[in-house]
Design goal:
The model has no long low-confidence stretch (mean pLDDT 97). The protein has 113 residues and is mostly beta strands. The chain has strands spanning 3-7, 11-12, 18-25, 35-41, 48-54, 59-61, 69-74, 79-84, 93-98, 107-111. The chain has no helices and 10 strands. 0% of the residues lie in helices and 49% in strands.
Amino acid sequence: QVQLRESGPGLLKPSQTLSLTCTVSGISITAERYYWFWIRQPPEKGLEYIGYIFATGRTGYSPSLKSRASISRDTSKNQFTLKLVSMTPEDDAVYYCASVVDWGQGTQVTVSS
């Protein structure tokens, strides 16, 4: 059974950097042909794609967040991490990590001074 769990701070101040970690169990994040995603959902809005890291370590990002986002991984811990710099209140959202078929439960991130 594949499980994903997000962890990280729930409250940030404007201009700080968000760092969220997704811990995966039940499958290796280097499993062949697997993509691992970060997605968010702002209040009362739809899902927004942030980016992915592929089994090989290749990454890709939404054009709208590419300048601020980076995704990396620690294969020894079976984790992948999202960093999003220069946070503003517009980045308030529930952040999810996911594979094509499995999702974490999501974690609320709020940006407030």
